[in-house]
Amino acid sequence: MSLKAFHIIFVAACVALSLFVALWGVRQYSGTGSTTALILALVFFPTAGVLVVYGKKVFRKLKELP
Question: What per-residue confidence (pLDDT) applies to 48?
Answer without folding.
Answer: 96
